[in-house]
Design brief:
- This protein has 696 residues and is mainly beta.
- The strands form four sheets. It has a 22-stranded antiparallel beta barrel. Strands 3, 4, 5, 6, 7, 8, 9 and 10 form an eight-stranded mixed beta sheet that branches. Strands 1-2 form a two-stranded antiparallel sheet.
- The protein contains six helices and 39 strands.
- It starts with a helix and ends in an 11-residue tail after the last strand.
Length: 696
């Protein structure tokens, strides 16, 4: 009975979305035979979940941050940070770590148009191949596109507005050029982003009587520009790729505030400049599964934050930071005869990070970090079992000093094992069990002793230069069916976890980061697609129906429950719900509804969730024109105006409330310029190809 139910459930799931086709499918032309390779909107693999941004208008209509918040199971907030299915995310761009977090990460993602992203990969089980610093999971933002021979161009635009106390406009534009000649191929992607946003923040002291510590309205003007370039040279089987990316944000904020014993009218300006250069050499052999990759990457992040009072024209803050990151790694893999089928992967990595901060032109932090690592991983198949066993060694040297004292050094050699066992009940239905040990090094944002956001007489923010690394032991079990349906449970035991903590003294609040001795995080997750015809036609008729899954109506349900065990007080868990509905209207108009809800009454570390978080209802309508070369979308986000955060700080009488102008209305368009050349065919990716994607 149980086996029959599983087969029926899996088959219905497969009919629902299992072979989703979209209009960004790859076409290969071989002697007048056209082969079409389709992509899926959501795809679950053994170690990652992939979301196709390029073909989903409800994800790519705004900024990357706005699109990420619509991914089922992903939550992002100023207090909670960024997590997926309860796991803290380390953010990568085109398979390279960004090495930024907190405010800088938010600004970076808000300044990046979502229509410049091809797909999002969330690597939930990073193996030995990935740095042990990947922590619980990796969010990999892939901006690469498929290059075409000769010349092709794609133009994208998204414009929307909000209307709270004032009318505010947001717009972004980008163009992607691809070309190839007999010597090399090149790609150039350039874009801009302009956003007018508002943010309301309230901080109260509710000890005996309620005292308003701070109540602010910030009018923010975010201006972002980016450019990505790539050159690729083919040498018979080998390939060399050169990349250079640059991002520049110039953000201005006018903040009016009032509170206990103060009134203010302030102006802040943040300039953020990021540039990254990479050299990749891919050595290939007669055996296509044997590969040798070399990568060298240099990244520089520079930030300037100025804050002054408009009432008396007095400069209050002048803080800067600069970060240099060097990374070199070698990855080699080849098939070996283990059981029915096997593969071995080995590699090494060396990187350095140098970070310094200044306040009023006085250096108050010098921080350096060096990592040297090697890894060895075996993969094998036997009957219905898949095995992955690997280990990674990493040697750390962390040191530095503030302007008064040296930092607590961290000089250790550690071993990080990973083991994965998968049992395949039948094709595309499997049970996966996984264990890995990871480490999370404190982000430079959390270390920065200077305030880089906002402060007044009663509220301030500061980093902690003496934060120590966090060691994770991660356990997970998951059943997955046909890429879309799954149910899973995972637990992470974190030693020395870095968390935000608020202290209050005489109506003065400080938000900083601390290490907590041990935290256990339990997560239960379920994802389930349901075709609407299941309710109208019944199960028997649904199984007989022959249809294109991209043309049907369905509902995708995600639910997750998380509880965090802290050492010094008893905590409550919270539920995360996400419902995504697709309805095909007349004239092939696609109507997508997205509803998110995180329940109140739970604890997120040292914050108690007073009211539902990430509560939002979004709509989008999209249609393709001109032989599917033009896509136009209309959308409305947070139509109920319910997306806000209300928290109380555990152990203090402080209550925090924040709200942004999340209710927005707008449109987006994507136009692929037609080419008259009938010989156009696709090449492999130009931009920062992920090594693991070669195996798919």
């Amino acid at each position: 009975m149980k086996k029959s139910f599983l087969i029926i459930f899996s088959f219905v799931t497969y009919l629902t979305i299992g072979q989703n086709k979209n209009n960004s499918a790859s076409d290969k032309q071989i002697e007048e035979i056209k082969i079409v390779k389709t992509k899926k909107a959501i795809e679950h693999k053994a170690d990652r979940t992939i979301f196709d941004f390029a073909s989903q208008s409800h994800l790519n209509s705004g900024t990357v941050m706005e699109g990420l918040k619509k991914i089922p199971g992903l939550i992002s907030s100023d207090v909670a940070g960024m997590m997926y299915q309860g796991k803290l995310l380390d953010v990568y761009l085109d398979s390279r770590p960004l090495n930024i977090s907190s405010n800088e990460l938010t600004s970076f993602l808000e300044g990046m148009p979502a229509n410049s992203v091809e797909r999002i990969e969330i690597i939930t089980q990073p193996g030995a191949e990935f740095p042990a610093t990947s922590g619980g999971a990796i969010l990999n933002i892939i901006t690469s596109k498929n290059a075409k021979k000769y010349l092709s161009a794609t133009y994208t635009n998204s414009s929307n507005f909000t209307n709270y106390n004032d009318f505010r406009l947001r717009t972004n534009n980008s163009i992607l050029l691809n070309a190839r000649n007999k010597y090399f191929a090149w790609q150039f992607n350039v874009g801009q982003n302009y956003r007018e946003t508002a943010q309301w923040n309230k901080v109260e002291n509710k000890s005996t009587t309620t005292t308003l510590l701070s109540n602010t309205l910030a009018d923010r003007y975010i201006r972002g520009n980016y450019a990505k370039t790539a050159l690729t040279f083919d040498f018979k089987k080998d390939r060399m790729i050169l990349n250079y990316d640059v991002n520049y944000n110039n953000n201005t904020s006018y903040t009016s505030g009032e509170g206990f014993n103060f009134n203010s009218d302030d102006l802040s300006n943040t300039k953020y400049f990021r540039q990254s250069a990479a050299w990749t050499y891919q050595k290939r052999f007669n055996d296509k599964n044997k590969k040798l990759d070399f990568l060298f990457n240099y990244t520089n992040n520079h930030s300037d934050f100025n804050f002054r009072s408009r009432l008396n024209n007095l400069a209050l803050l002048d803080n800067t930071s600069n970060q240099d990151y060097y990374n070199f790694k070698i990855d080699f893999s080849q098939p070996i005869k283990i059981l029915d089928e096997g593969k071995v992967s080995v590699g090494t990595l060396y990187d350095e990070l140098h970070f310094n901060t200044k306040s009023q032109n006085i250096t108050n932090l010098n921080y350096s970090r060096r990592t040297a690592a090697t890894y060895l991983e075996f993969q094998a198949k036997w009957n219905k079992f898949d095995f992955i066993v690997g280990g990674r060694t990493e040697d750390y040297l962390i040191k530095g000093n503030t302007n008064t004292t040296p930092l607590i050094p961290f000089n250790q050699f550690k071993f990080f094992p990973n083991v994965s066992l998968q049992y395949n009940f039948m094709p595309q239905i499997f049970l996966n069990m996984n264990y890995n040990k990871k480490i999370a090094l404190p982000s430079t944002s959390a270390l920065n002793p200077n305030n880089t956001t906002y402060q007044n007489q009663n509220v301030s923010y500061a980093g902690n230069p003496n934060l120590q690394p966090t060691i994770y032991d991660n356990y997970e079990v998951k059943i997955s069916a046909f890429d879309y349906a799954y149910i899973g449970y995972n637990v992470s035991i974190a030693n020395n976890q870095v968390v935000n903590r608020i202290t209050e003294n005489n109506n003065s609040m400080l938000n900083t980061s601390i290490n907590v001795s041990q935290i256990k995080i339990h997560n239960f997750n379920i994802g389930l697609p349901l075709p609407y015809m299941l309710f109208t036609k019944g199960l028997a008729e649904t199984m007989k129906f022959d249809f294109n899954p991209d043309k049907i109506n369905f509902l995708y349900i995600y639910a997750g429950y998380q509880v965090q065990e802290l050492p010094d007080f008893e905590t409550n868990g919270f539920w995360i719900f996400n419902f995504m509905s697709q309805i095909i209207l007349p004239k092939d108009i696609k109507f997508v509804t997205n509803y998110s809800y995180l329940t109140s009454g739970g604890n997120n570390y040292y914050f108690y969730i007073e009211k539902p978080l990430n509560h939002s209802l979004d709509f989008s309508f999209s249609k393709k024109f001109l032989n599917e070369q033009l896509t136009i979308s209309l959308y409305a986000d947070d139509v109920l105006n319910t997306n806000k955060g209300v928290f109380s700080s555990i152990g203090t009488p402080v209550y925090l409330e924040n709200k942004s102008d999340t209710r927005r209305f707008g449109f987006s368009l994507n136009y692929k310029l037609p080419t008259k050349n009938k010989l156009v065919k696709e090449d492999p990716n130009l931009l920062n190809k992920d090594k693991k994607e070669d195996n798919n």
